[in-house]
């Protein structure tokens, strides 16, 4: 592709971009960061999980229940249904 | 008697990259133009063979077509079986199309070790076609892992900055560690069932507890590949450091291997476990959509913006897959195909800017619409496709996924819809920052709109995105019976 149109780099932009890119170098386990981690890493996902599960159960969907318990019958993808090998 | 099995278009599609690769091996590395021509012609012939697959494909059956079985280790009941259905066919087509684009886009931007670079791409194409066509768990694993080798080299050798080595190792280690658990599960399955043939495994009923363990092992591999939060750290790094063609193939096809793995293995082999883990997947998907979208808004590197938006879109894909209904699964497949085109096109656009100005930092760019109008129009179209604008392929995919999700869980649909709004926010923000505003002439002296070659690279992607968005039935009808059979296996 076309060349010779390179950027005239700006020190401040480069430093700023480097800082934003390498945030792991300046990250500290401060109280505020622990709190953020607890909220966004644990509380929000757990809350969402509970909410989604409750909604699915209230709608009558099987959550954590095998479809076998709901009386399903396994069908085969176009192949003749061979004898099933039941696991002992 | 002549064995006509090799005239099977699937085998021809599989073997053509290998033939091209062998020809490249014997060409002296100094003949760079000839190497490029051989690689391009090989990729074009492979694409033509894959088109024959589509033309000859019978969409009225869910059976595997163009099947072929070869003895590999018969005494151990191990065979090499190939075949495609409506789910895998489009991934093969996407692979062959994007390989042509990757070779074209690297035509003049890759300056060193060109022969080796092209060999890596043809090898990658061969492995990817195998991943989407083998019907054997062991062979799937082998090719699934083999993809790492050429990709590791592409990122590590032809990447853009010093960080490329770190990115290559991160990519390699993440995916390898995830897949090791899958290998253990695979061996356990083999010793229990006595075969790794997919069609035999589908007839086998694993106990619920074993399904859960195997599902988790497979999940560890597929979740890294898709990638789902919190297994996504390798992706922005690998995207940012890879050359443009590497990013195209990463976003366009490699991410889809995880989704394909869920569809081909996790759902039919472990249906009870799939239902068991549905809330977990939904939670991780929503987290991926929301957190990745918000993270996208904070990025300063153009490639990382597209990389994080890919994580967000893949969240939609996993919601669709695990909604376990027709709309959801068809939507997720369509969304994967759409994302393969849209994100590839966006990476190409960023590659166009990087090739000219040698920087991907967002702060330098502004007002490009004034000096690169054609680029601006393409970029606007792909941005709209990325946010799921009606008439584009992403809209159909996301709509079907949301319809599928709504049948199962309204809260899930609500949060996924918020993700769509956030997607619009970061896409328009990105376009606005680059294309409008004052032209920053203090950083750039010269500008050049897209070249003829770049235009012809972007145009087919534009037309395909429109085709998929305006008339999706030509894609959905091909996969309909295969998806129905997949759902029938569950209930």
Characterization of this structure:
Chain A: It comes from Gracilariopsis chorda. The complex is a heterodimer of chains A (88) and B (491). Chain A has a domain of 46 residues. Helices cover 49% and strands 2% of the residues of chain A. Chain A contains three helices and one strand, in the order H-H-H-E. Chain A is elongated, with a radius of gyration of 27 Å. About 23% of the residues of chain A have low confidence. Chain B is mainly α. Chain B has one domain. Chain B contains 20 helices and three strands. Chain B has a two-stranded antiparallel ribbon with strand order 1-2. In chain B, strand 1 and strand 2 form a beta hairpin. In chain B, helix 1 runs antiparallel to helix 4, helix 12 runs antiparallel to helix 13 and helix 13 packs antiparallel against helix 18. At the A-B interface, helix 1, helix 3 and strand 1 of A face strand 3, helix 12, helix 14, helix 18 and helix 20 of B. Strand 1 of chain A pairs parallel with strand 3 of chain B, so a sheet runs across the interface.
**Low-pLDDT ranges of chain A:** 65-84
Spatial strand sequence of the major β-sheet of chain B: 1-2
Estimate what percentage of residues of chain B fall within beta strands: under 5%
Q: What's the total count of β strands of chain A? A: 1
Count of discrete alpha- or pi-helical segments spanning 4 or more residues of chain B: 20
What characteristic shape of chain A results from the CA principal axes? elongated
Order of helices and strands of chain B: HHEEHHHHHHEHHHHHHHHHHHH
Structural class of chain A: mainly alpha
